[in-house]
């Protein structure tokens, strides 16, 4: 009997180790599968078009990255488009963070007439595809005289329904009502409550919204294509689309341009992700 118990006890750690090993193998496979498209982008950016379409596929890095990048610089105004996109993305993201967090905090912690109706209208706008508003938006920009200017790209996107919804939900659950009441007793107005009380607490939500808004502004293609008519003001996505022509495409060059356009997004994600990841970990420990 004692020998059976010892045998049973010795099998328990082995079973646990097997489950852990299986879990790590699954995570490894998922990680490799998630990283492979980016690796394939690098492979294509470093090879010629003939190597990309070779069979069996060439999965090793080539030696043509500098050549492909040089072709990108020759065919489009890459650095001008990069600067235009960076300016638009930074300004738009900054405005989104300010206005959406202010509106979300107001919806969450202040009571005013028509609050619920306005919030429902906000949710309804999230269900409308952006393509449906392209024509009315262009007519409005034309009447304002903003066609061809960066104002037509920045101002319509400085407040988003998702951003207000996201910040409202976060402020509702994370900003204590007692803390807001204490600030009111101390004589804080609306803006002081927002700036000194709510904003430090909502930092993880701001980090996520900042990353989300920056990526959206950086990758936006349809609206800049519609509204911009000067090649010197093209954003990066519009400029990269000019590399593809009807007579044939140099896919090595296209992928090199795409790779260079992707690097800033990776940097932004690495800089901002630690804030909301740390907050998720802290919340899990509290639970």
TrEMBL record:
Residue intervals of the ABC transmembrane type-1 domain: 82-272
Keyword Transport: yes
Pfam families: BPD_transp_1
Membrane topology: Multi-pass membrane protein
Keyword Cell membrane attributed: yes
Xref: InterPro entries: MetI-like, MetI-like_sf
Keywords carried by this UniProt record: Cell membrane, Membrane, Transmembrane, Transmembrane helix, Transport
BP-aspect Gene Ontology terms: transmembrane transport
Gene3D superfamilies per record: MetI-like (1.10.3720.10)
Alphabetized CDD domains for the sequence: TM_PBP2
GO annotation, cellular component aspect: plasma membrane
Localization per record: Cell membrane
Transmembrane segments: 21-42, 78-105, 117-140, 146-166, 193-215, 251-271
UniProt family annotation: Belongs to the binding-protein-dependent transport system permease family.
Protein's name according to its UniProt entry: Sugar ABC transporter permease
Organism: Dictyobacter alpinus
């Amino acid at each position: 009997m004692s020998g059976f118990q010892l045998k049973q006890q010795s099998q328990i750690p082995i079973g646990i180790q097997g489950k852990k090993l299986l879990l790590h193998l699954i995570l490894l496979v998922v990680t490799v599968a998630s990283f492979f498209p980016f690796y394939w982008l690098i492979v294509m950016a470093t090879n010629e078009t003939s190597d990309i379409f070779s069979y069996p596929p060439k999965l090793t890095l080539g030696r043509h990255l500098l050549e492909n990048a040089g072709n990108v610089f020759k065919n489009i105004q890459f650095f001008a488009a990069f600067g235009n996109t960076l300016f638009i993305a930074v300004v738009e993201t900054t405005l989104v963070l300010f206005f959406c967090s202010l509106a979300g905090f107001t919806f969450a912690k202040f009571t005013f007439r028509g609050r619920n109706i306005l919030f429902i209208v906000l949710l309804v706008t999230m269900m409308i595809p952006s393509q449906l508003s392209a024509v009315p938006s262009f007519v409005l920009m034309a009447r304002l005289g903003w066609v061809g200017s960066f104002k037509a790209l920045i101002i319509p996107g400085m407040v988003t329904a998702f951003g207000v919804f996201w910040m409202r939900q976060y402020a509702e659950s994370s900003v204590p009502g007692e803390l807001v009441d204490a600030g009111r007793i101390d004589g804080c107005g609306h803006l002081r409550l927002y700036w000194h009380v709510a904003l430090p607490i909502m930092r993880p939500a701001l980090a996520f919204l900042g990353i989300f808004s920056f990526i959206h502004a950086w990758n936006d293609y349809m609206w800049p294509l519609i509204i911009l008519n000067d090649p010197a003001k093209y954003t990066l996505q519009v400029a990269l689309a000019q590399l593809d022509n009807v007579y044939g495409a140099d896919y090595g060059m296209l992928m090199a341009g795409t790779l260079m356009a992707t690097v800033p997004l990776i940097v932004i994600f690495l800089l901002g992700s630690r804030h909301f990841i740390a907050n998720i970990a802290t919340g899990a420990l509290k639970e």
